[in-house]
Amino acid sequence: MELAKLKARFETSFAGEVVAELLRLEVVERSLALASKLFVAVIPLSIIISAVVPGADNFGDSLVNRLGLTGAGAEATRNLFATQVIAAAVVAGTWDHRHHRVSNQS
To answer: What is the pTM of this model?
Structure first.
């Protein structure tokens, strides 16, 4: 019985009204949607930036380090972006299939 009184008191308080409004606005769902859209936009932008201004390590390693990935996730990320770099080189016509490397053609 005491719990019901406490719940009713909280719901009529300022904090209770704030929580109710946040639930009504679906803040968590909207935040997750915004975060996923940002993630989908940032990854391609990062790939483009790393292609224009290459760093010391490849994009997969850089992404693993920045996101703090470990284990299978880190390995999958490295493999994913290594494959994309090769695919981009094939499309650009700079992949040397005989030696499995990007050639220095201009």
So the answer is: 0.40
Looking at the structure, do residues 14 and 48 belong to the same domain, yes or no?
yes
Structural tokens at position 48: 């483009």
Query: Is 61 buried (19+), middle (13-18) or exposed (0-12) by CB count in 10 A?
Result: middle
Among candidate residues 53, 71, 90, the one where a domain is terminated: 53
- Name beta bridge partners: 96: 101
> Residue 52 is encoded by which pair of tokens?
């224009």
Closest residue by Cα to residue 73 from 60, 86, 84: 60
Q: Tell me which of 43 and 94 has the higher pLDDT.
A: 43
Burial of 26 per CB tally in 10 Å (0-12, 13-18, 19+): exposed
The residue range of the domain holding 85 is 54-106
